[in-house]
Amino acid sequence: PSPSSSTPGAEQKEKQYRAHQGFGDHHGGVTGAHTYFYADEARCDQHMETFLHCIDASSGSSEDGFSAIKLTALARPQFLVQFSEVLVKWRRFFLQMAAEQGQAGQAVLEMKLEVEKLQEALANLGIVTKAESQEWFVGESLGTSSTVDLLDWNSLLDSRTKISKPLLIPNRQTGQLEPLLSHFGEEEDLQMKRVLQRMDILAKRAMEKGVRLMVDAEQSYFQPAISRLTVETQRRFNRNQAVIFNTYQCYLREAYDNVTGDVELSHREGWHFGSKLVRGAYMEQERERAAQMGYEDPINPTYEKTNEMYHRCLDYVLEEIKHRRKASVMVASHNEDTVKFTLRRMMELGIHPSEKKVCFGQLLGMCDQITFPLGQAGFPVYKYVPYGPVNEVLPYLSRRAQENRGFMQRANRERDLLWKEVKRRFLAGNLFSP
């Protein structure tokens, strides 16, 4: 939707990040993943211990291994929703001002606010005086620049959350000023510190053990917070190589903006961009929540549009690997066309499998007809193995089977190919050699 203040679509969008009792502990409609819900910090610490054991197990079982973690296991979901709401409101405020400076319709990263006009707008809205807003830029790298883009704007939020004076921004519906951090008090500040400490402990263990850490994507109303916390960890641990991987769900309409924004941020700050690309596992739940709460469905309208988005994001990251060699991607897909697309583009761009900048991932017990040929051809390929007590991982596997209803057809195809090869070898008289 257009970012102008009169647009009802923008008001709907903010509803996405409001707490909703019916979805506070809601597993219905999630076929492909697990979301953690609990009441206290002690449970977060228990989950962290489980993840530490998982990192150790990954280190002992494979070279250059991965462990996947979920932030709904390390932070209260309510906190993640509240933090997401703050991030989205701040971004919306930027888009509103960009529209007022005549930049509506441009690509998000191309929008640049003129600092002079920005300071005047903030003063006219009664948010801060010109003198106060000038202080915002002191000590920031943008102090020397005459324009501010979205990444600069986001960096301003980091320092704004530490000031005692509440930051007021316009409410789109009422036109009144209200605190940006209205639900973000001392308790939320403490929760922010705790979750970053837990991620820090996990990242340090992963580095010690030679394991890379993938932060899974979750529902869209948690995702802005999850991505922001992951980037914060990437800043610290991806200085020399991609240790921390962020996950991008390509069924989201804004997937390309998310990928390109984080790549550009990694350029500016000098760290390695680590990414896992998935299609997405929460479609039914996302659509049900959007309908109930009255905001725009965040999911691409068709499977074809999601495929286009996946290939667009993937191509962008592959180009980044070619030009800078400071990016890595896991193509986490069961789609044969996507795997073929990746192999073709790697060849065209001169990205060799031995560089290990591109790897592939499939679920345990599924799509072996993709996994094994990739491995035999020398590509880094991983099986996603659920880790934990049997009674917890079996429901996970059954949900994955449900999500991949077509996998039995692929298994039949694989069996037919194997049987054909056995007959060929038998007739050629070399049953036990290729």
UniProtKB/TrEMBL annotation:
Residues 1-24 are annotated as: Disordered. Keywords: Acetylation, FAD, Flavoprotein, Mitochondrion, Oxidoreductase, Proline metabolism, Transit peptide. It catalyses: L-proline + a quinone = (S)-1-pyrroline-5-carboxylate + a quinol + H(+). GO terms for cellular component: mitochondrial matrix. Its EC number is 1.5.5.2. One of its GO terms (biological process) is L-proline catabolic process to L-glutamate. Pathway: Amino-acid degradation; L-proline degradation into L-glutamate; L-glutamate from L-proline: step 1/2. Belongs to the proline oxidase family. This is Proline dehydrogenase. It comes from Onychorhynchus coronatus (Royal flycatcher).
